[in-house]
Specification:
It contains seven helices and ten strands. The chain has 283 residues and is of the alpha+beta class. Strands 1, 2, 3, 4, 5, 6, 7, 8, 9 and 10 form a ten-stranded antiparallel sheet that branches. A hairpin with a 6-residue loop joins strand 7 (208-210) and strand 8 (217-225). The N and C termini lie far apart (68 Å).
Length: 283
């Protein structure tokens, strides 16, 4: 009997894709380094998963953003999904480098716990309800260079009743420094006294406050200076005066790859707790 010379290279793409689909995303992506063929096939599987994750089936993104001294008084924010820029354009090539630069965009808003987050954003068959747009007040004393915002983002799966979650996956939990010079520049741009430098991509947008150096999660605000604050009579020659700004939410950005990993974590929790009446969290 002649020896078999079959190898993985002889398998059709459809069979390899079926095999690759059994791997979790964390295990799948390193396989792209095996060879050029695997790189392309991993990209196709990964693209299909990003498309599935973008539907956020039965899931919501919840944002908590507050000054360290205002944690108790600051409400959690629901986030309306706006889309994934660049995902459709990457469909034919499914290049992993391009897919890594795709961000999911959300609009934070204060939800209505009685109706539930999705119904608050868009009531089926009815008129758009009034949505209360959230904002932050940032006060800097004379000589103070920055303030801080604690930022916690979770992907949750809605439970059987409003206000209950059947799973929760943390996306980010960190502290952002909000610098005085950034506030002054963004306020000048909002007032029309300064032009914004054109950015090539979301990752290069200077108006976004990123939660980490990898630019996994970012917050985009419209900054308005409160000019009613009287200037102090006395302050040091080299000190900046006391100022106050209002930060109005525009968008929450999450790198699509990271959102997919959080989605898979949430789905895994569902499998673990299947058939158990366990409340993971509640609003």
């Amino acid at each position: 009997m002649a020896p078999s010379h079959l190898s993985i290279d002889s398998l059709p793409n459809e069979v390899i894709i079926q095999i690759l689909s059994s791997f979790s995303t964390r295990s799948l992506l390193p396989l792209a380094a095996v060879c050029r063929r695997f790189n392309g096939l991993v990209g196709r599987v990964h693209y299909a998963r990003l498309v599935k994750a973008s539907r956020l089936r039965d899931h919501e993104v919840i944002l908590e953003c507050y000054h360290p001294s205002e944690k108790i008084s600051t409400p959690s924010l629901f986030c309306e999904f706006l889309g994934m820029d660049g995902l459709a354009e990457a469909a034919e090539v499914a290049n992993l480098g391009e897919l890594n630069s795709v961000y999911a965009r959300f609009r934070p808003f204060i939800g209505d716990e009685d109706r539930g987050p999705r119904q608050s954003a868009s009531m089926l068959g009815g008129a758009q309800p009034a949505v209360q747009l959230p904002s932050h007040k940032i006060n800097l004393d004379s000589g103070e260079l920055f303030s801080q915002l604690c930022t916690v983002t979770n992907l949750v799966k809605i439970g059987p009743r409003n206000g209950l979650f059947s799973s929760i996956a943390n996306v980010t939990d960190t502290v952002i420094r909000v610098w005085r010079d950034w506030l002054q520049r963004e306020a000048a741009i909002a007032a029309g006294t300064q032009q914004r430098a054109r950015s090539i991509s979301s990752a290069d947008d200077p108006s976004i406050l990123w939660t980490d150096s990898s630019k996994t999660v970012g917050l985009k605000f419209r900054v308005v200076e409160d000019e009613s604050i009287p200037a102090p009579v006395l302050f040091g020659r080299d000190d900046e005066p006391s100022v106050s700004f209002s930060l109005e939410y525009e968008e929450l950005l999450i790198r699509a790859n990271w959102l997919l990993l959080s989605f898979e974590t949430s789905e895994a929790q569902q499998v673990i707790h299947a058939g158990k009446a366990v409340v993971i969290a509640s609003v």
